[in-house]
Amino acid sequence: MFNIILFGPPGSGKGTQSEKLIEAYGLVHLSTGDILRSEIAKATPLGLEAKSLMDQGQLVPDAVVIGMIRSALDNNPQAKGFLFDGFPRTEAQSVALDALLQQKNTEIGVVLALEVSQDELVKRLLNRGLTSGRSDDTNEAIISNRIAEYQNKTTVVANYYRQFNKVVAIKGEGTVNDIFSALATEIDSRLAK
Ligand code: ADP
Prior knowledge:
Low-confidence stretches: none
Bound molecules: adenosine-5'-diphosphate
Number of strands: 5
Strand order of the largest sheet: 2-3-1-4-5
CATH architecture: 3-Layer(aba) Sandwich
Distance between the termini: 13 Å
Shape: globular
């Protein structure tokens, strides 16, 4: 099994690159944002709890997303590997993920960290808001909140994995295909080992 964390701020292109990576490497895509939005669409109790936080650009509680990931791992026993997108977002989520993977005798192979300037992030998110139907993409104050949550709570995730030498920074500006090639080069060099 080869498991990847695609890491980076909101708007850094995780969703776009995830689609290409799961296709190229046959991985199971686990996006906590997508799972939460599907819970909201189904109006489940979990979705209702998450919605107000997401609408404000705040993180949903660790226990909620960790539980979602635990079920997703259990529901995909045949997976060749997982691509984690938007998770983990806190140190507690990182520690929990490592423990869950260890129970399955596997681990994170690499953390690919997309780097994009703040101005470009805001521009991309507002632009996505024109068509995505995501209310958290239409308001600049909520977007700033999400970027602040990332800076305050999520940058620690990279530090956590840096202690295990698992983090590689990738420039997240340029064409979609160039960024994909840079990601693939890093993955291939690890798969070859
Ligand atoms: P983006 O990274 O583009 O902002 P996501 O789709 O990954 O969007 O997440 C949207 C929202 O869902 C976040 O702002 C947050 O409220 C919630 N969310 C998603 N993943 C997590 C997570 N791992 N922990 C806590 N909250 C999360």
